[in-house]
Design goal:
Elements lengths: L1 E7 L3 H24 L1 E7 L6 E7 L6 H12 L6 H23 L15 E2 L5 E4 L2 E7 L2 E6 L20 E2 L3 E7 L11 E4 L3 E6 L3 E6 L1 H36 L11
Antiparallel strand pairs: 1-9, 2-3, 4-8, 5-6, 6-7, 8-9, 10-11, 11-12
Helix pairs in contact: 1-3, 2-3
Length: about 260
């Protein structure tokens, strides 16, 4: 089980040059990948319209391509080489997310750009040393992030079974921590609560849906009745309060003139 926790840190000034260089590297990779895209015209199923869908001219997932891309980034790189590997991985993830949303119609045909300052630290770049997380900036140069103010337990080591790859911004460090399964092998169900239904999913049982429309109808009806009663009660109470205030000031009630 993986949980992510966020902690404030005070190393923003020391990390700023790395964060900026990392963002520039991510954008360089995005630009390189974007330049290898060609647009293929495809007909939308069931419609008369056509769409332009992205397609790579070369195999950008091949080892040869990634190796050349890595070497080109390392030419002017002043930090540990593993940061370049992380930047490449991040850029591929950003473009994959953009393509998925573009196909659904949620994105425009425009190259995505990394704007925020952050880094994703590979496990080879971090080490737990007591209450601190050691972050390698350059070979032999480190920054220590204080984790003593945390509200959760830390694993004993940095590994696939301990601490994952943290995301670090100028103000915070987001730590993914792996925990042992407390379900003892029992199947778990993830639930989504909505007004009209209760939806659950488990790999063992599949989807489960509980219809709550009638319950929602009773809730809305009850709420409206309660609201109406409250408004009528408030009006009556206000009327009584006004009468008391008039009498309290010593003014006599006006007598009705007989017809």
């Amino acid at each position: 089980m993986l949980r992510s926790y966020s902690l404030q840190h005070e190393c923003g000034e020391e990390l700023f040059p790395l964060l900026k260089a990392y963002r520039d590297a991510v954008n360089r990779v995005l630009e390189e990948l974007w330049n290898n895209i060609e647009w293929e015209k495809r007909k939308i199923p069931g419609k008369k319209q056509w769409r332009l869908l992205p397609k790579y001219k070369v195999d950008v997932k091949s080892k040869e391509y990634k190796k050349k891309l890595r070497e080109s980034l390392l030419e002017d790189w002043d930090y540990a080489a593993h940061w370049v590997d992380s930047a490449i991985k991040t850029a591929y993830s950003i473009l994959k997310s953009w393509r998925k949303n573009y196909v659904k119609g949620d994105r425009k045909r425009r190259r995505p750009t990394a704007r925020r300052l952050f880094v994703r630290a590979k496990q080879t770049l971090i080490k737990l040393e007591g209450e601190k997380l050691r972050l390698t900036i350059k070979p032999g140069e480190h920054v220590y992030l204080d984790l003593s103010a945390r509200y959760f337990k830390l694993p004993s080591e940095v590994s696939s079974a301990g601490l994952g790859e943290p995301i670090i911004t100028p103000e915070k460090v987001h730590l993914p921590v792996h925990y042992e399964d407390t379900q003892n092998g029992k199947p778990a169900v993830a639930w989504d609560f909505n007004l009209l239904s209760l939806d659950g999913y488990s790999p063992e049982t599949g989807w489960v849906r509980i219809d709550t429309k009638k319950l929602a109808s009773v809730h809305i009806s009850s709420f409206e009745k309660k609201k109406k009663c409250a408004e009528e009660g408030f009006t009556l109470e206000k009327s009584k309060k006004s009468s008391c205030e008039v009498l309290k000031e010593g003014e006599k009630p006006s007598e009705k003139t007989p017809a």
